[in-house]
Amino acid sequence: MENDYIPIAALNQYSYCPHRCWRMFCAGEFVDNQYTIEGTGLHERVHTVGDGNQGETYQVRAIWLKSDRYGLVGKSDLIEEMDGCWYPIEYKRGNRGEYDNDELQVCAQALCLEEMTGQEIRQGYIYYAHSHQRVLVEIDEPLRQMAIETIAAVTNLLTTGKMPTPRYSPRCKGCSLVEHCLPKAVEKVGKYRED
Questions:
Q1: Domains of the chain with CATH codes
Q2: 106 with 137: CB under 8 angstroms?
Q3: What are the pLDDT digits (tens) for 48-97?
């Protein structure tokens, strides 16, 4: 990974939780839990480098994507081409999520692919391993704008190193770093200070 480039995965983490992103990419902290272990296992299988045809679809696995314009870099799970159109496919361990961080990651991959191929990328997919479901992601203007805003926010986070305040939400239940940031304790201390 090049020093001045933002890992595409950081956008996903930031969108999920800015504090988690800070812990992973600024403080270098990471702890496994059942979800991260399942995800790592899935990506180890998916990231077998190679290419070939699946019917009329050309597939390339585990290639690096890069955008100089947006300062992004990351390894793709799967890139497909059919009828001259390229699209990224991101693999996720669970079922379809209720948050937009996975779609944001697909969009960031599409931005890189556009720069690398010179073609507009209008769609991508998320493949959810538990449900064996491939979900279409429309790479539309609102999603592109969200990705560009998130790139700016992550750039600022990585440049300043300023730790975002942990905030408790339902997302904390599946987070492997929840015991490090203790969002409920931070929330209680904040309320105590206000009184």
A1: 6-163 (3.90.320.10)
A2: yes
A3: 666 778 888 999 998 999 999 999 999 999 999 999 999 999 998 776 76
